[in-house]
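Its record is quoted verbatim for completeness.
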Amino acid sequence: MLNIFSLANGRLFQEEIESLEELSRFQPIWVDLESPTPEEKRWIKQYYGLSIPEDAMDEDIEESARFYEEDNGELHIRSDFLVADESDPRTVRVAFILNQHNAELKSRGVLFSIHDEDVPVFRLLRMRARRAPGLIEDAKEVLLKLFDADAEYSADTLEDIYVDLEKVSRRVLAGNMTDALAGEVLGSIARHEDLNGRIRRNMMDTRRALSFMMRSKMLNAEQFEEARQIHRDIDSLDSHTAFLFDKINFLMDATVGFININQNKIIKIFSVASVALLPPTLVASVYGMNLKFPELEFLGAWSYPYTVALMVASALVPMWYFYKRGWLS
């Protein structure tokens, strides 16, 4: 899919391009390629003179090749954007290309973004730019606003994580923790820990991209200050992710502790039962050695009931003692 965005009356307008001829009808500041086909890449190269690198969206690209400037003045930035999907949270690699200085090419002043799937941050920026006139002035502003929206999207996701962890906390601290509930809680905690870690890594990546933009001297004074403000927002998010990691670890330890308590209760029951059965086992062993005991000869036919009653009594007396000591609760 090939979408172009142009400014009109201070608002960002979107057009979906389906042929090479349509490109000549617009003067965009942003060209967005979502899962571009070879034909769409050919249109970009033919009309704008821009060659999209084959490894533009590779995940295993070297760190040194993620932020650089070509000899022809093209800035290349590869950054990750969060997708906080409930069932499959992930980050999407987006490649940005911006030509600022080469006036011989039609790509000058146009931001190109290439990615494999739709990104929530992109939808958020498009919605804001349509509703708020004057929000975006040029291609560099688009890039800054994308990073700003990414930080805000991560902040909203962190708030959702905190709300969910509060619900988990009430279930854990209620005290009636069963093994089935503990398994459910541990699964929920693990998902939130994974998402929190992805947010922290995503913010680190956004910080590096902003630092590159600030070092490259591509921003004017107002945009430079805006980039510094996004930096400060990211720093505050880092401290919040650290707080959530501590809360997640506490809930994890508490849940595992309840599981250990439940297991100890089971072990205690077996321990008490084994101790209570030792006396009747001893009685049965003594009277089962085929020896003649005077009391058995005296009781005659009542000797067997006497032996059984003695075994039952020897089991009940330890159980009564354990009950009085509170070891059975």
